């Protein structure tokens, strides 16, 4: 029983940890993305701008004309960028969407992923 309780506690606390990101740390992680993405301005680069991306459907920007067919299909099927889908995409863009045009191998650290998502949430609607 004790072991079970400890296991449950451990699971609960690691879930809570994984969900908590620091926007400040995420701004530093985002330097890996700035060659292709703006987040604080709604201006596209090689990649679509990420201002307000949390809660936005995939491939939703009308003024970004370089979405892959794969991304447009995901958007049409209902993919929305929330914490869970962003975490999966950022861990391995091509694992989630094999034909995505995003030439980025992925973030290795779960903490970096949580942080960068916290940062993206923090720039929303600014
Ligand atoms: C080498 C350029 C490049 C880098 C680096 C890059 N991206 Fe991208 N990103 C793209 C391109 C191009 C697309 C469009 C992909 C498609 O249509 O398949 C994209 C798409 C996205 C999308 C989907 C946006 C939408 O409107 O559906 C998100 C979210 C995203 N990138 C986040 C990031 C984050 C966060 C990083 C850094 C950890 C990053 N990207 C690094 C080029 C890049």
Automatic annotation (TrEMBL):
The record's keywords, sorted A to Z, are: Electron transport, Heme, Iron, Metal-binding, Plasmid, Signal, Transport
Q: Identify the domain of life.
A: Bacteria
One Pfam family here: Cytochrom_C
Q: Quote the PROSITE patterns the UniProt record gives.
A: CYTC
In alphabetical order, the GO MF annotations are: electron transfer activity; heme binding; metal ion binding
Report the residue ranges that make up the Cytochrome c domain in this protein.
21-124
The residues forming the signal peptide are: 1-18
- InterPro entries from the UniProt entry: Cyt_c-like_dom (IPR009056), Cyt_c-like_dom_sf (IPR036909), Cyt_c_1A/1B (IPR002327)
Q: Is ATP-binding included in the keywords of this UniProt record? A: no
Q: Which Gene3D superfamilies match?
A: Cytochrome c-like domain (1.10.760.10)
Protein name, as recorded? Cytochrome c family protein
Q: Give the organism the record lists.
A: Shinella sumterensis
Tell me the classification of the organism that encodes this protein.
Answer: Bacteria, Pseudomonadati, Pseudomonadota, Alphaproteobacteria, Hyphomicrobiales
